Amino acid sequence: MRHLVYSEMMNGLIIERCTRDQEYNMIKHWHPEVEFQFFIRGKRKFFVDNENYVCSEGSLIVIDSEQVHNTYSHKELFHERILLSFEKDKFEQILSAMGLDLNHFFLHHRGLIQIPEEDREYVENLLGDIAEEVHKKQPNYQLVVHLRLAEFLIYLERMQHKGKKERQSGGTHSHELNQTVNQVTSYIRAHYKEVHSLDELAQAFYLNKSYLSRIFKKATGYTVTEYINIYRIQESQKLLEDTDMSIADVAQAVGYENMTYYNRVFKKYVETSPLQYRKKQIAYKQGLREKNYN
User: Fold this and answer.
1) For 83, which of 9, 133, 210, 226 is 20 to 30 Å away at the CA?
2) Which CATH number fits domain 175-284: 3.40.50.300, 1.10.20.10, 2.40.30.20, 1.10.10.60?
3) Reduced 3-state DSSP string for 89-146
């Protein structure tokens, strides 16, 4: 069961604290917002890009915008965590004026950061202060939220500088296996429109398909089909945003001959249809234009 301790929202930012004691698994997905999850108690598993992590007390998961990730239950179901999610473009101007480059930060801080035991109460209270400011919405609360967020990011930067940051790895892989998988992923990215099956890839690399399937999943966390579909959907999002191609033409351009299947896969990962996604992007860009010219 999920118990919400608090959930607060302002323009471009969401922060919430909750506990959960039942199994809950998410599919691999991505979104334009960046995300932090700080674990107070309990354990939970995460997959971010090509790495698997086990979160426990003091773990902080950092997810950049558009990073493929999911979260799933540990055998110890109970956990309590604080989630902070925000849109970069709503905060980057003021944070940049403070000397913080968000793109640089998320390039160098991804995956799992283990907060030292002596600092965990400080981080918990700092995130709690952000939630309280958003909840009370007193005069100039947005500025205070920016300041608290800057303090949080500076703390993490200082951890890295002092060498206190600890990252977990999803496991070690031999150089030879990594090299093979890297060649396969590069091939998929270059030929994603034409690659349709594990059999085709195995033949192209003169590998047994069961062996390829096993090492690919071990090294990346994806099945071959998942990797192909995710890359195709991400490419189709760009076409939906930047061109006036019909939905059918977009589907065909990224390798889907069946429109029904394309719609189903798109909705699985993006949680909306291609048509609704395009409408939302058009409305968002129109809103930005109106904001800039008014």
Assistant:
1) 226
2) 1.10.10.60
3) HHHHHHHHHCCCCHHHHHHHCCEEEECCHHHHHHHHHHHHHHHHHHHHCCCCHHHHHH
- Contact yes or no for 2/19 (Cβ under 8 A): yes
Right CATH for 2-162 from 2.40.160.40, 2.60.120.280, 3.40.50.280, 2.60.120.650:
2.60.120.280
DSSP, res 219? H
**pLDDT beyond 80 at 216:** yes
Name the phi and psi angles at 154, rounded to 5.
-65, -40
Structure tokens at 72: 């799933």
Cβ atoms of 156 and 109 closer than 8 Å:
yes
CB 114 within 8 A of CB 59: yes
Q: Are 133 and 18 in contact (CB under 8 A)?
A: no
Quick check: 292 pLDDT over 70? no
Give me the residue spans of the domains in the chain.
2-162, 175-284
Q: Pull the structure tokens for residue 174.
A: 């031999």
CB 269 within 8 A of CB 236: no
Round to whole Å and give the CA distance between 163 and 201: 42
Under DSSP, the state recorded for 207 is -
pLDDT tens, position by position, 42-68: 999 998 877 888 999 999 999 999 888
SS3 192: coil
